[in-house]
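Final report, closing paragraph on structural work. Over the funding period we assembled a curated collection of sequence-structure pairs, and we close with a single example.
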Amino acid sequence: MPGGGRRRPARTASVHDVFDIYTIIFLALAVFIFLRLRSVLGQRTGRERPPFNPFAARETRPEPRPVGNDKIVALPRPAEAAAASRAEGEPPAERWKGIAAPDSAVARGLDAIAAEDKTFDAGHFVAGARGAYEMIVTAYAEADRRTLKNLLARDVYDGFDAAIRGREQRGETVESRFVSIDAADIIGAEQRGKTAQLTVRFVSKLVSVTRDKNGQVIDGNPEKLTDVTDVWTFARDVTSRDPNWKLVATETGR
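Its predicted structure, as stored:
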């Protein structure tokens, strides 16, 4: 060849060169995708949910109530301001609407109770009385003395307890299942000194049966609904901080 020199062969791309090129391309793509995602996902819209905190969630759950009080039924009492506002703002004809007829003995009794207890609300009382009624009947059938003791006045509890003891001595059991409470009406109301008394007529349907120690039915029918009417009187010291009413008297069929 001219000049006496030899011509060098052209250099071919090595595997390392190819690898470096593809690595650069992939890195560039990764950076591009990351920047795009960040521009979309990294922005707050104001609607994001706060991060889940299992400890905070656990703290918001209500703490279990002590065993001795877990079945107490507090016949609800609304805020004093709301009750007072309602009593002052409503005309007498509307004050006990749905509870008692205007100027009836019951309405006058409710007026007397409300005068002594500014937080009294007859509608809330009736709702709580319905729950207490079902709970007491069920507790009596199940011989649940702890629940009964929390809901009954001492002499009424003694009567229930004596009936349960007699049943236990005979080996009898009672099964009661509520189907419905069709009515819970206040038929008596009065304020006696510091004590408010409200009498409620309950009309209910339930299945009730009593069995002997051998499991044989001796009263009632496990397949038949029974219509029951009970008249119960509840009382509460209006000067007490305890909001609970207790059962002080019972009648049937009135």
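The CA atoms of residues 74 and 243 lie 6 Å apart. The chain has eight helices and five strands. We thank the funder for supporting this effort.
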